Amino acid sequence: MPHWLDPNYLITTFGLIGILAIVFAESGLLIGFFFPGDSLLFTTGLLVASDTYLTQPLWLVCTAIVAAAIAGDQVGYLFGRKAGPALFRRPDSRLFKQDNVRRAHDFFEKYGPRAIVLARFVPIVRTFTPIIAGVSGMNYRTFTIYNIIGATLWGTGVTVLGYFLGQIDAVKANIEIILIAIVLLSIAPMIIELLRSRKR
Length: 200
What we know:
single chain; mainly alpha; 10 helices; about 0% strand
């Protein structure tokens, strides 16, 4: 990935504020789908564990990340409610692809409200799912409940995982391999679905 999307660069340059801004953007802004959410949170946990660049306590970092993720999805939902069907008529551009909208729509149709939680762990889909929820007119209270659950599981889970694994010497010595593995695991559902679609 470009150096400006590398988690280490983002964290060492912008610190916790930068992390929160990226989590917010990736969670509900159309332009946020290309940010490295999973690897960013994992690296955040690693750096909190080593007390490098991030000196805040783990509980504070996790709380702030969850709050940013919740806020991002809420904005995405409200944007979807306002944009409505116009979103599906928007032409493709460098930062917007109709395929991403259709993928999130199919994901939402398949899993219903649970999609708000599950999408947190699927790159690109997690950016568009709250928007699709707004477009479809999902009950706001229901959306908010699932949004809070998903943001808490994702924001806390991935960060805490990085924190505890970051204290293992073998992980520290192979951090780049670990990050690549996390990215591959997170995009695996999309790859599998793409292969199934091509087979059909």
